[in-house]
Amino acid sequence: MAEDGLSSSIVQFIEQYVRSVEQLEIILLLGRNPEQEFSVESVYQVIMSTRDSVQGWLDEMVSKNLAVCNPGPPLGYKFSTADATLLESAQRLGASYKAYPVRVIEAIYRPRKPQTDPAQDFADAFRLRKKPS
Questions:
Q1: Is the Cα dihedral 49, 52, 56, 59 positive or negative?
Q2: Which helix (H) or strand (E) holds 78?
Q3: pLDDT class for 114, splitting at 50, 70, 90?
Q4: Which of 56, 32, 57, 29 is nearest to 42 (CA)?
């Protein structure tokens, strides 16, 4: 465990997949019930935000391979079980959120390091700079 109560793998999962508490709640809902298919309406009834927002987060989960979408009708969403480590991470995140809710929320809203290109970082290391006058 990291000193703030969250493991580095949980922090990494948050940094990669979670941008809001609403999105966290949706990930946790689907992760608790990976075999169940949810409609936008059924997720909305649990989360109680807006249907458009729920739809957007579910679509983002699909784009990040966290969920799969059954074209329906109606559209149905399930947590993707293609990568068991993602499901395990989501479930461990749920346990962390239950034990350390403020720390999880802080991790979600903590400023994130910008994604950098390793090749550009290497090239920048050789950039010539003028000596200060």
A1: positive
A2: strand 76-79
A3: low
A4: 29
Number of domains composing the chain: 1
Q: Which range of residues forms the domain containing residue 37?
A: 8-125
| 99 within domain boundaries | yes
| Residue 101 is assigned to a structural domain of this protein | yes
The answer to whether residue 75 sits within a structural domain is yes
Name residue 74's amino acid: P
Report the CATH number that the domain containing residue 28 is assigned in CATH.
1.10.10.10
Structure tokens at 96: 């962390």
Residue 3 lies in a domain: no
pLDDT of residue 75: 85
d(CA 72, CA 70): 5
For 43-93, write each residue's pLDDT tens digit: 999 999 999 999 999 999 999 999 999 987 888 999 998 888 999 999 999
| Cα–Cα distance measured from residue 76 to residue 55, given in angstroms and rounded to the nearest whole number | 11
- Phi and psi based region of residue 41 (left: phi greater than 0; alpha: psi -120 to 50; beta: remaining): alpha
Per-residue pLDDT, averaged over 118-131, amounts to 68
